[in-house]
Design brief:
499 residues, mainly alpha, globular, CstA, cell membrane, transmembrane, CstA_N
């Protein structure tokens, strides 16, 4: 239990120490007007309270990622704790904070627009493809997993297909509502269910450890190894198995949404960095509960029989009983439902921007939204494990892009860019190893050849990144928007009127 409690303590300490350092490095300006104030449109740009923004951010980024990922990551044993804790503090929370704050400084721009501005116009098309691929996969996963959970805990007439249909109906209604109505009113309720259920599972886990009802595994010299029952290697797979609980590119598509509703830059550390730390705590609880209650072979068998939702049901009822366990399951259901909604909302915005379709009428909103729902519905019929693998890879590719956008931003401003470059480079290497060696990629053997080839590709891409960055910096004038964060608001409004 020492490792479990110590990991959670480190996450909290990380928020007050490294989070403060990251905030200072960014150099917030509390008096600067935010997009919610100067671009207020009553739909996406709407000023909302700090706590409401934080809850929306947490529910947007969480989904089933910090639950399903750690459940599958628990197969590796206590070593999973290391990636959750240190990945969250030094990679995931930094990734979320920087993406959210850079978007805030750029009129709530989405990742493709930020990539175009800081990495070049040609990069925007690549980022758009990855962002849209990621979001359609995320939205599909976050429809399929809650539908499975709903079908598991309801009467037989509630089939997964019917549950999927009901979720799409909710998404359709919520998609066309202003953000303060679609999320601002409902999400605090969802957030309450999530917090209560997660706290209850964590409390019972600790109580059982204190009373001796069960033993929480600790990370020691003897347990610092790979306990995966199928022998799946830790690197790079664990980076893709536990993503939302440590670092996830999906968050880079969600933070800009909240940057459009914030009213003060000083809220950024709490809203972006802090909610990622909260997600890390959720991941620790579910990884700890899975390792404590089941051996790796049992977990592997339960996952093989369906999805990790089977493990969710068992953990919830074993720790909390049938009644409270049902509340915990509801908490797990609201996570993916809320994240799926925000995923579709982000996907609609990115696709509409890319195709230059203004979202200024219900007809235009539905023209973009309904085809996306149709594609996602057919994807729900594909094997979950296959979708999960593609989602994991596209997810971390997006995280790499976001971290390199942040690195370029910090570099051009003469600030400490290592804070984003180091995790970005590590994940870039992992992304290459993964796609070279996995069946969804080139299916090479995971050996020295694959590691060397991935290293060559990583170094080559980093060299190109720094070459283009140095040329970009040399060409800048003091008045460049790249140094002054965003165009004057009058210019933004002029461009909007033209489009």
């Amino acid at each position: 239990m020492t490792t479990f409690l110590g990991g959670i303590a480190l996450l909290i300490i990380g928020y007050f120490t490294y989070g403060k350092f990251i905030e200072k490095n960014f150099q917030v300006e509390p008096d600067r007007k935010t997009p919610a104030e100067v671009l207020r449109d009553g739909f996406d740009f709407v000023p909302m309270k700090k706590q409401t923004n934080a809850i929306i951010e947490l529910l947007n980024i969480a989904g089933t990622g910090p639950i399903f990922g750690p459940i599958m990551g628990a197969l590796y044993g206590p070593v999973a704790y290391l990636w959750i804790v240190f990945g969250c503090i030094f990679a995931g929370a930094v990734h979320d904070y920087m993406t959210g704050m850079i978007s805030l400084r750029n009129n709530g721009a989405q990742l493709p627009e930020l990539a175009e501005k800081y990495l070049g116009k040609s990069v925007k098309h690549v980022v758009n493809v990855f962002a849209m691929l990621l979001l359609i996969l995320v939205a599909t996963v976050f429809v399929l997993t809650p539908a499975t959970l709903i079908a598991d805990v309801t009467p037989a007439w509630m089939t997964p297909t019917l549950a999927i249909g009901l979720i799409f109906v909710y998404y359709l209604i919520s998609t066309v509502l202003p953000i303060d109505k679609a999320m601002g009113k409902v999400y605090p309720i969802f957030g309450g269910i999530l917090i209560i259920s997660t706290f209850a599972i964590g409390a019972m886990l600790i109580y059982g450890g204190v009373t001796g009802a069960h033993v929480l595994p600790n990370l020691t010299a003897s347990t610092l190894g790979n306990f995966h029952p199928e022998g799946t290697p830790i690197f790079p797979i664990i980076f893709f198995t536990i993503s939302c609980g440590a670092m996830s590119g999906f968050h880079a598509t969600q933070a800009p949404m909240v940057s459009r509703t914030m009213t003060n830059e000083s809220e950024g550390r709490y809203t972006f960095y802090g909610m990622m730390i909260a997600e890390g705590v959720i991941a620790m609880i579910w990884a700890g509960a899975t390792m404590t209650l089941f051996d790796g072979q049992t977990v592997s068998q339960m996952i093989a029989e369906g999805t990790p939702s089977v493990v969710v049901n068992n953990v919830s009822t074993l720790l909390l009983g049938n009644v409270l366990g049902m509340i915990a399951i509801l908490g797990v259901i609201v996570l993916p439902v809320s994240s799926g909604l925000s995923g579709f909302r982000s996907l609609r915005t990115i696709l509409a921007d890319y195709l230059s379709i203004p979202q200024d009428s219900l007809k235009k909103v539905l023209a973009v939204t309904i085809p996306l729902f149709v594609v996602s519905f057919f994807l729900t019929m594909v094997d979950f494990q296959l979708i999960w693998r593609y989602f994991n890879w596209a997810n971390q590719v997006t995280a790499v892009i976001a971290l390199f956008v942040a690195t370029r931003y910090l570099y051009l401003k003469g600030r400490n860019w290592l804070v984003t470059f180091v995790p970005g480079s590590l994940m870039l290497y992992a992304v290459f190893v993964y796609i070279l060696t996995q069946p969804i990629g080139f299916n090479m053997a995971l050996d020295v050849t694959a590691y060397i080839l991935a290293a060559i590709l990583t170094v080559g891409l980093i060299a190109l990144f720094w070459y283009s960055g140095s040329k970009q910096k040399d060409s800048l004038s003091p008045q460049s928007p790249l140094l002054n964060d965003h165009l004057p608001i009058e210019e933004v409004r002029r461009l909007q009127s033209q489009s």
